[in-house]
Every structure is written in structure tokens, then in C-alpha cells.
Amino acid sequence: MTREPPKPLILIVDDTPTNIQVLAENLIKDYRIKVAASGEDALRVIASQDLPDLILLDVMMPDIDGYEVCRRLKNSPHTNAIPIIFVTALNEAANEEFGLNLGAMDYITKPFYLPVVKARIRNHIRLKQTTDMLESMAWIDGLTGIPNRRRFDQMLEVEWKRAQRNRLPLGIIMVDIDHFKEYNDCHGHGEGDVCLKQVAAMFAATVNRPGDLVARYGGEEFVILMPETDTDGTRQLADQLRHRIESMQIPHTHSSASRWVTISLGYASLIPQANQASSALLDEADSMLYQAKSLGRNRAFGYCLG
Ligand SMILES: [Mg+2]
């Protein structure tokens, strides 16, 4: 028995009940609808239930306004892919620019013409569905053009088994851009994306031995997999990456680590034991990354596991 896929879910956020009503009445035929009457309400609904496929977001609301709701959603890796359309009476170009820079997909001003609103919603939902599908199939991260986490997970298993079989070390480096949330907050998400691309391009140019893999692990996290590389070799590459990113001198006005965009790195290398899972290597690098951050960021940290 085949079942129809569920209709896309739209969350309508507005503090004026009649605004919600007009939109809901016109969308209910084609979509599942959820509503929220305030910013807090919206964040609670999103945190506690299925993620919406699209959010129609009023700007002017008491307490947490629409801009702030957008900022928070875009700052969380869990919610940052949800397309947001601002629906607002603020009709100045500067408001629109501000909203789009926060990462919103689109900006519709009230009073609106319903057929246009519906057409735009349909287009954005279609784009979201296509992007979701391509990302689930692809090995390449859409923003940076380097391999994605899916590809990394797959290669980690391949290389782990190979290292196990041949009793050779497997090296790994986990990388985090320092204070990236603050970078997005003060430079805007558009600039944040440019920064991610620049950092990824530098990684890709630096990690160039055959067999090595650099991937975007998620958000501002990257990971590098280095077959047949001991702790010393792993550390050398980690130090080189740290130095090169700092030398790019991408201005970062809100970082405690530096005036420039910098990275923290945790590295590890081990020879896999029989029956040992690859998560041992990931966990080790992750805890080394945590140490690097605790020590003040803009540094590489790791030690020999013997
Ligand atoms: Mg309002």
C-alpha cells in the first residue's frame, strides 16, 4: 500500500490574529498549518515539534521580534536550513535588506496580494524539497563545494578498516572556526557564508596529499582524515592549517582569540585495534578540540596515544 507523502508544513507567526487567519485560510488546502502568536511561542513550537518546511514570520511583535527569531533559528544547526519568509508592514528597502541579511529567503510586505504570496510560498517549498533531496544524495557540501559529512562518514569507515587490516595509523583533525556565531551576528549571515567558503578553499588547497580528505562536518566545523599518518604528521598539518587561516587576515571584530578569523583544532592518530569502532578516533579528536578551545582557541591540541 502506498501512502501520499504528507503535505509540507508551514508555520505562521504573527501577533495579529486576523493576519494569521487570512494566511491560514488560503494555505490550508495545500499545506499543513501551525500557528504561533509570538516570537517565544514560535521558538517553542519549533523546538518541541516537527520542523516546519517553511516559516512565514511577522517582524513587529512584542518581546522577541521576527528578526530575533530568524537570527536564533539561523544560528542553530538544527534549524538553520528552514526557509523563512518575512511578512511585514515594514516596507523600507533597508528593512528588507536587513531581513535578507539575517538569512531569510524572501521578504513580503503588507498589504500583500494573496496569489503572489501563494506563488512565492510554492516556489520556496519546491526549492527546499529539491535541495533536501540533492543533499541527501550528494557527497558535496552545497555551500563550500568540498566533500560533506556523508562522504566523510563513508570514507572514515573505509580507511578505518584498511588501517585495522594493515596495522597502520589513521590521523584525524577536527576544526572549528573560533567565535563564528559572533561573526555571523556582527557581519551578517551573507558574510558568514563567504567566510566559510574562504576557509574551506584554504583547507582544500592545503590538504593535498593523495588519500587525504577534507570535509565540512556541519555548521562551522570541518574535519580532515589522513590515512597512514601518525600523531606527528597530523600535528604538523594541524599547525600549518591554523597558521594559514590566521594569515588570511579575515577581519573578525568580535573574537576574544584574535582580530582575525582563526580556528581551533583537535588532532589524534591511532592504529585501530581489532573490534575497535571508528568512533574512538572521532571522540578523541573531539575532546582534543574541546581542550584547544578551553586553552583560549586559535591553537591546535592533541597528544600521542602511544
Ligand atoms: Mg506584528
TrEMBL record:
Keywords, comma-separated and alphabetical = Nucleotidyltransferase, Phosphoprotein, Transferase
Main EC class the enzyme belongs to: transferase
Classification from the root reads: Bacteria, Pseudomonadati, Pseudomonadota, Gammaproteobacteria, Methylococcales
Q: Which residues carry this modification: 4-aspartylphosphate?
A: D58
Q: Which SUPFAM superfamilies match?
A: CheY-like, Nucleotide cyclase
- Tell whether Transferase is among the UniProt keywords: yes
Domain of life according to the entry: Bacteria
| Reaction(s) the record says it catalyses | 2 GTP = 3',3'-c-di-GMP + 2 diphosphate
Q: Specify one Pfam family.
A: GGDEF
Protein name (record)? diguanylate cyclase
Q: What region holds the Response regulatory domain?
A: 9-125
Give EC number(s), comma-separated. Answer: 2.7.7.65
Provide the species name. Answer: Methylomonas subterranea
Domain called GGDEF: residue spans: 168-305
Q: What is an example of a GO molecular function annotated in this UniProt entry? A: diguanylate cyclase activity
